Every structure is written in structure tokens, then in C-alpha cells.
Amino acid sequence: MSRTALRICPLCEATCGLVLTVDDGRVTGARGDRDDVFSKGFVCPKGAAFGAVDSDPDRLRTPLVRVDGELREATWEEAFDAVAAGIRTVAERYGPDSVGVVLGNPNVHTVAGALYPPVLLAGLGTRSLFTASTVDQMPKHVSSGLLFGDANAIPVPDLDRTDHLLLIGANPLESNGSLCTAPDFPGRLRALKARGGTLTVVDPRRTRTARLADRHVAVRPGTDALLLAAMAHVLFDEGLADPGDLAPHLDGLDELPAALADFTPEAVAGACDVDAAVVRTLARELAAAPTAAVYGRIGSCTVPHGTLASWLVDVLNVLTGNLDRPGGALFPQAATDRTPRPAGPGRGFALGRWHSRVRRHPEAKGELPISALAEEIDTPTDEGEPIHAVIVVAANPVLSAPDGERLDKALGSLDFMVSVDPYLNETSRHAHVVLPPPPPAQSPHHDFAFNTLAVRNQVRYTRPAVPLEPGRMAETEILARLVLAATGMHGADPAGVDALVIDRTLGKAVKEPHSPVHGRDPKTLADLLTGENGPERRLDMMLRLGPYGDGFGADPDGLTLQKLLAHPHGIDLGPLRPRLPQPLRTRSGKVELLPEPIAADLPRLRAALDERPGGLVLVGRRHLRSNNSWLHNVPVLTGGSNRCTLHLHPEDAERLGVRDGEPVRVKGAGGEVTAPAEVTDTVRRGVVSLPHGWGHDRPGTRTRHAAADPGANVNQLLDGGLLDPLSGNAVLNGIPVEVAPLTAAVTETFEALT
Ligand SMILES: Nc1nc2c(c(=O)[nH]1)N[C@H]1C(S)=C(S)[C@@H](COP(=O)(O)OP(=O)(O)OC[C@H]3O[C@@H](n4cnc5c(=O)[nH]c(N)nc54)[C@H](O)[C@@H]3O)O[C@H]1N2
Ligand SMILES: Nc1nc2c(c(=O)[nH]1)N[C@H]1C(S)=C(S)[C@@H](COP(=O)(O)OP(=O)(O)OC[C@H]3O[C@@H](n4cnc5c(=O)[nH]c(N)nc54)[C@H](O)[C@@H]3O)O[C@H]1N2
Ligand code: SF4
Ligand SMILES: [Mo]
């Protein structure tokens, strides 16, 4: 029997609504949902392959438990018994920080990943938290924390209304956008141009996005902070800085010109390899546009000055009066955001409240750099215990973080490791217990994270499209049971975890004077919650307490889970609106334009004015049909141009004696890898590019298709020593490498192997 079911796509940040075709409990097709209030029918090749992703035969169906060194199929009961024993033994013997928690990217794409890791961390009391954020957007969190007092207050470009978009180190035509949730990002860029707006792209590669732009600036990798600082300099120098209505909300504006005085267009031109005249034009165009937004992503974050670049993105938005105004960059307001409290001074954002044990890296947003995970396991010191046990949820750091070889060994040496992962891959192969979540069609979906980053306020929820197969456990229940097992409550009712959270949240809400439930009885409120299970009741609670909520009856027209369920294609909550000063949590209650940690990092940027790379530098790239490390096992999403090749410019190829299609050796501080050369003038001279997420050639994995065309792990070129100091984010772009053709003998072996 064939039927259809709605499901929000979890495969990237665009959050498109899909219509799945379901035949006998199996997803056999997927198309864009034309009635979706946000995505309006858009779908990309990944979303269209939802069925293939969902039914990959290599997905694990039952838990695995290590017995006598071998991973064997086990019951859920055996698996959680092993987790409780493994984690508790380590925690009780060596203390809470000896249990590390590693959270990967898919946690922001699942209901379970949003609701349970915070409870796990609180219950464990560990400071050893490592996530994909420190190989990604941590610099943006830190700059937002410092500017606005809230690390999660990230302004989003108003794509649909802006007149001018300056896009730095992002390639949404392949990635479909990031920290800017916009289904059909490509179509929205075309619409910008169609309404007479302009698009400028700053990227060392002439990407598909750059080809769409009115202007493409092929900056030297790692130098965006210099470029942006010089643009700010020009705005001051030419009297173009005009924050307009923002002025009363700003602190530190007068100190900025002096802080940026050294960064003249002429001073940065050499380092950025961008003409001073172009820098001036970029600044003037930004100032002249009726509305404009500066937006930076991976290429501006995963670099040595990632926090400064992220800070300067918003400084430019402020100086041109574009922060918090329609057509500029605004703060979204999601339906599950906490009840907005009245504006006023907050607690501010602190960095370095504790440090990593081995190299004393400061924490940021409660996290330590994932680049330091291996050393925190394999290096004893006099101070405290190394990490002896690790809980991994939806992460594959052996491929996604620097120096996978070292991490691979370190994970293999642990007393205990548990992975919540659908695959036995490069990381989970080290686990003592693997807990596989069901495929996405069997899971509910709501975008807790991405709705706070969306170009339009809206809310959508989809229940599982097909029921759980026999023997499967919902990921929400897996994580609730994991919380219990890891925190000494093994065997208790997992529904108790949700009940506890509800109890605490409502208990707090009724005490907040600005809450719609102020003064009410939390027990009565809890009884009003609807939903089929704990996670749904928690969603209902968040919606009802949130900015559009019914306030548990205070506003009968407001949002509830039941209302959302009655709108299966979602509810539109309108365009982004100006919100300042309400989102600010700084101590001054203002936007703090020159916070002390930023000012203290500027001398390092000044030193970079004179830096010139001696040889080649490497940058990454994404392919439309990829998703970090874990979609290479789906045949329809691999092959064609989605290959792990080294892009290099024809002139560099010629100089090095490298020919198209032939294998080259790439060497970096952390090691070397081999990949076929792809000679292309889409990369600028002096820059080579390898995609990440490849390197599926380790034994003991169960991803057969990926292993057949493993590619090389670009992160092996890194030794984990290069970080943006303020955020602890790994430097993944602009890293120095050496490239050489493989010698004939080695080439033969390479060809035999590939
Ligand atoms: N050189 C270089 N390195 C990079 C990047 C780069 O641009 N260049 N990008 C970085 C970025 S932005 C990121 S976000 C990181 C990503 O880093 P990770 O999060 O470590 O890597 P992913 O490949 O996203 O793998 C996530 C894991 O989750 C599993 N998984 C998939 N779906 C689910 C699910 O529903 N539930 C659970 N529990 N698990 C699931 C997958 O099998 C996989 O093992 O990589 C980073 N690494
Ligand atoms: N198809 C696909 N979509 C994805 C993912 C995927 O793996 N595949 N991953 C998802 C994830 S986890 C994320 S975080 C987002 C990322 O989303 P994006 O940031 O849009 O990702 P990328 O496509 O890597 O684009 C980064 C661009 O920065 C450029 N770049 C490198 N170094 C520099 C530099 O120093 N300066 C400048 N200005 N540019 C530089 C690169 O050439 C590249 O074109 O994509 C998400 N969407
Ligand atoms: S753009 Fe992203 S969310 Fe939309 S269908 Fe493609 S992978 Fe899914
Ligand atoms: Mo990411």
C-alpha cells in the first residue's frame, strides 16, 4: 500500500519540507512539499535521495557490545548494562572530568540531540565537552557572546529583502547555507539579483556561488579579518560610518577608529592579495546600498583570526546601520526561544572559566577545542586525570577533527567508549557499545537549533513518517536511557528524564516576573501538557512558554503543540523584525563594540599584516551531494564530480610537474595524504583544495560503499596545533602544505589500489 507522509529534511541547515512516498513501511520516494510554509517545494539532490539514505543496508539495526575484543550484536538491555558499568566505573574512580562527551553535527538535526545532551552534561558534571562547533562556528559564538552578551544571538542576513549581500567564505550553492537557514538559498540569491540587488563573494575559489556574483574577490586564505578591518577603516576614514538608529544601543563606537587605525587598505593589500582600490570599493558599496548585510561562514571561521573576522562582520553591519533592520542582519525569534525577558543589563559572556588540562586551552561556551581531544586522552600530566571514558553522540572526529591518526589511537586506548551512531565507522569502531538510532523516517523532527537562525520566523513539526521497526528504539529514548545509565540511575523509567526537565523548567518559569505563567502552580501546568510522549510534552511546554505561545491559557490564540499538529505544513510567523535592545545580555546592556578580549587579540592581527605564505596553502570545499563524513555510503550521492581530488591551479600544476588525474602527495604538519590531482582555474594561484569527510579505508568499519572509494582524510594534514586562540576553533583553511607528484613506482601502487 502506497501512501505519503511529511518529513522535514535533516540533511542540511535548509530544513526543507519533504513529501515522502511510503510503500509497505519503506520510503520509496521524496519530493519537495509545495505547501511547506517555508521551503515551498524546494528540494535538492540529497533531500530527493532521502529514501536511499534512510534504507542504507549498512545502517546498524541492533546495539553492538564488545565481548572479548569483538563487537557483537546484543539486546538493548545488555547494551545499557554495559554503558552503566563502563561509565560509572570510570567516573567513580577518576572523577567526572575523566568522562569526555563528544557531540557531532547531526545533534543539531535531531529532536533527541536538542533535548538530551544538556541533561547528560548536567548529570555527569564533566567539563570535558568537545563538539563539532570547534571545527566550525565557535568563532561566531564567541564574537556574538562578546558583542551581544549571548553566544547564541547570531544575526542572520535578511536574504529576501536585502539590497546588497557581501558573502565571505560561504558557498551556499553547494552547502545550501549555514548559520542562515534558508530553503532554496540559490533561488533567494537569484531573486536578490532579479530585484536589482547586488551580490559580492569573497572566496579564494571561483565557486558556483562566486559565479553568480556581481563581484568575486579571490582573497588569500586566512586573511578576511584584515580585509574586513580595512573596510571598517575606510568607513571611518571617508565619513561613511553611520549606525543611524542603532546609536543609543552602542558602546565603544568612539574607540573603534583608533583600534583599527593600522588596517588601511594599502596596509592589508599585500597580505590579502587584494588591491587597495578594491577594498575601498567594497566598503563604499556596502555604505551606499539602501540596505546591506555582511555574512561570513566556514571560510571566515576556520582560520587563525576566526573570532576577529566574525566580530568584524557584525561591526560592519553596525557601522552601516544594517544591524537589526529589515534588509540588513537581524536576530530571528524562534517559537521555542525562552520567554523574552525585559531589556536591560545581563550577566555578560565569560571566556576561559576553565582550561584544558594538557595545553591549557581556555573553554569557550563550556567547550574545549576538539583539536585537543586526543591529547586529553593520551597525555598524562601532574594536574588531574586524563579522559578514560568517552560518550560520543553523532560524531566522527577521527575524520572531522585534526590528526585522525592520533585520535584513532587515543580512542582505541580508552577504558570505555559508547557511540550513539547509525554506522560502524572510523570513530564508532572503537566503541565498547554502539547504540544505533533508527533511520530518519522513523524519527520525529523539529528544528530547535535552525529556527533560531532562519531568514523567516516559522515553526514546523513532523511526527515519525513510519512507525519504529520491531527491535528499534527511538533516539530520544536511547539518549534518555543513556543519561540514566551514565549518571547512576540505570534502569529508572526514561520518561522520568523528561518529567524532571518539565518540573524544573516550569518551576523556574513560575518564579519569573516576565513569564506568562508567573505565580501559577507548576504541577497544574504540567498536567496541561499534551503530546504522545516525553519529548512531545517538552516541545509543547517550550512552545507554550515561548514568544508566540499560549502561555498555558494566557493567550488562547497562542501556539501549542496541538495547534502545530493541526498545521502539518507549518505555521508562518512572519519576516524577521528588529528586536534590539531585547536580545542583549551584556553587562552594559548595549552592543559592546570593542570588548576587551577582542582588543587584546588585535596585535596578533597587526602582526599578520606582514605575513606572506612561502608556498601553497590548502582550503576545503563541499559538494552538493556530500554531508561531512557520513553520506559517502549512499551510492546515488557519490561519484561524478563528488570525488576526493586535489584542486590546483594550472600554473601551480605546471610548476610542480603535476598532470590532471595523476596522483599527488600532499604534506602538512600532521602528516601526508595522496589524492588524484584535478587541475582547475577555479582555485586561485597558490591555493589547493581538498574536501573533508573522506578517508574510509580503516579496518573494522561497516560502510561498504564508502570503503570502495575511500578518498583521503584531509584533516591528517593537521596536527591539531593551529587554533583561533579566542574560540579554540581549529584552523582548517589556509594551512601551509607541500604538493608533489608521486614517483612512478608509488604511482603504480596507487593505481592498483584505486
Ligand atoms: N578539513 C575540514 N574539516 C571539517 C570541516 C571542513 O570544512 N574542513 N567541517 C567541519 C564541520 S563544519 C563540521 S559540522 C564537522 C562535522 O563533524 P562530525 O559531526 O564529527 O561529523 P559528521 O560527518 O557530521 O558525522 C556525524 C556522525 O553522526 C552519525 N549520524 C548521522 N545521522 C545520525 C543520527 O540521526 N543520529 C546519530 N546519533 N548519529 C547520526 C554519522 O554516522 C556520523 O558518524 O566536520 C568539520 N570538519
Ligand atoms: N552539500 C553539503 N552541504 C553541507 C555540508 C556538506 O558537507 N555538504 N555541511 C554542512 C555544514 S556542517 C556546514 S557548517 C555548512 C558550511 O557551509 P559553507 O560555509 O557555505 O560551506 P563551504 O561550502 O565549505 O564554503 C566555505 C567556502 O569558504 C572558502 N574559503 C576557504 N578558506 C577561505 C578563506 O580564508 N577566506 C574566504 N573568504 N573563503 C575561504 C572555500 O573555498 C569555500 O568555498 O554546510 C552544510 N551543508
Ligand atoms: S537543501 Fe538541505 S534540507 Fe533541503 S532537501 Fe537539500 S539537504 Fe535537505
Ligand atoms: Mo558544520
Automatic annotation (TrEMBL):
One Pfam family cited in the UniProt record for this chain: Molybdop_Fe4S4
PROSITE patterns: 4FE4S_MOW_BIS_MGD
Keyword annotations: 4Fe-4S, Iron, Iron-sulfur, Metal-binding, Oxidoreductase
4Fe-4S Mo/W bis-MGD-type domain span: 2-58
Entry superkingdom: Bacteria
Gene Ontology MF annotations: 4 iron, 4 sulfur cluster binding; metal ion binding; molybdopterin cofactor binding; oxidoreductase activity
Keyword Oxidoreductase attributed: yes
Gene Ontology cellular-component terms listed: membrane
UniProt key word Cytoplasm: no
Name used for this protein in its record: Anaerobic selenocysteine-containing dehydrogenase
